[in-house]
Design goal:
By secondary structure, the protein is α+β, with helices and mostly antiparallel strands. The protein is about 25% helix and about 20% strand.
Length: about 525
Amino acid sequence: MTAEPSLPNTQKGKPVRSSRPRRGGDLPEQTRPANSRAGDGRLNHDLDPGDTGPKDACGVFGVWAPGDEVAKLTYFGLYALQHRGQEAAGIAVSDGAAVTVFKDLGLVAQVFDEKNLASLTGHLAIGHNRYSTTGAPTWENAQPTIRSTSTGTTIALGHNGNLINTHELAAECRDLGIETDGSTNDTSLVTALLSAYPDESVESAALKVLPKLRGAFSFVFMDDNTLYAARDAAGVRPLVLGRLDRGWVVASETAALDTVGASTVREIEPGELLAIDEHGLRSARFANPEPKGCLFEYVYLARPDSTIAGRGVYSARVQIGRQLAREFPAEADLVIPVPESGIPAAIGYAEEAGIPYGLGFTKNSYVGRTFIQPSQTLRQLGIQLKLNPLREQVRGKRLVVVDDSIVRGNTQRAQVRMLREAGALEVHVRISSPPVKWPCFYGIDFATKAELIADNLDIDGIRRSIGADSLGFVSLDGLISATEQPPTRLCQACFDGHYPMPLPEGDVIGKHLLEGLDRRSSVDGTTAKEDSAA
């Protein structure tokens, strides 16, 4: 086993290119097009920018299609997966002789344009939308990550999920003498370990590295000629395989396959490694499957037009709403959703309860990316950055307001206040998931346990805190029933605290773990190579 001798020469806002003739040397750069706008990575989904709700998992996409414009296919695939990550976007392509990665902070449409997509030519590509769960939201941590081996093979990798043994992987990289590239995420460590087997194929290296990983991962990765996809043994995060007329596609969700005109073939199985090249498609097992798909995908993360484990997400959410109406009925005049994620459940609630459904909020579709944060004074005055009540619709009515989840409660508090100020007589809040009481370590960036309102207050305490007349959360059994999945095949940790993959003991887990290692190194006067990963 040989460690990589040198690192790619990367700079912000510039693609990184590796060609096979350069064996182990610095990777040459291409100048970023002058008209390509750099994003700053700041995005706000919440009514109150200081109240961060559940943040999406990342989105991954890969395509092997000689003769097609693989960069554009990947662009549209990432566009379809934009909801899964908005901090950064990147695409890697290969023409068989060189792998080029172009990535930056920002949304897909801000990072890429016609000119830079035209420069990304090849027969296979992978792409990534990032929301950070390990490592800060910096350019260095944007994906796909890239590494070259001492023999000239180049590996690019995108990751959806989060590993829980990052400290062990960092220690192994240190022991192998693999230097860091300025990134502080778990994905870069996996890419580095894959590059540590230069005398073996990437496929063979993957079968050695993947069993070492603990936690959640749905990977798309590539070398010069082959597209790979792999999913952890629990299959926490979704990953699907699709077929094009002239190739293959892998993606986080079936909606992305639909967008690029690919037919859905099947889900990539937990513990499976796929390889796709000129010889066709190959499958190998690196772990025994123990399925534990993320239950929160059905509540919020996935697009409603996607299908997970054979169950349409939209249908599941409508059914959750029906169940919610049975469990927590209310005497009301109108059922309204909190757009967009509350819409299917609100429809189901209204159908089951026999109460009219309508819109009570209008959403500013262009608010999301905030360059200027409002002052605290403006927040206190009630500035509505994202939602505004439809006053004529809600005035004088008893309302049922359906939302997907409550994390801190600040957003719901603001919504209830706005509806009352608009003239609502009563506001009954219904939530299409159980109380979130535990953080996720498998790829969703919830608040810490201490910040979760359900960890500190009972249901009536939450109701009083947000100012609602009544409050109801769908039961865990009711939610699971709506997915039509066996409870044994679902990860429910954020609701019941039972983590399917045991968490490591001690202070060796967390979003900024590797930044912490770097800080300890600088304080101790040691190098990262010398510092203990524990």
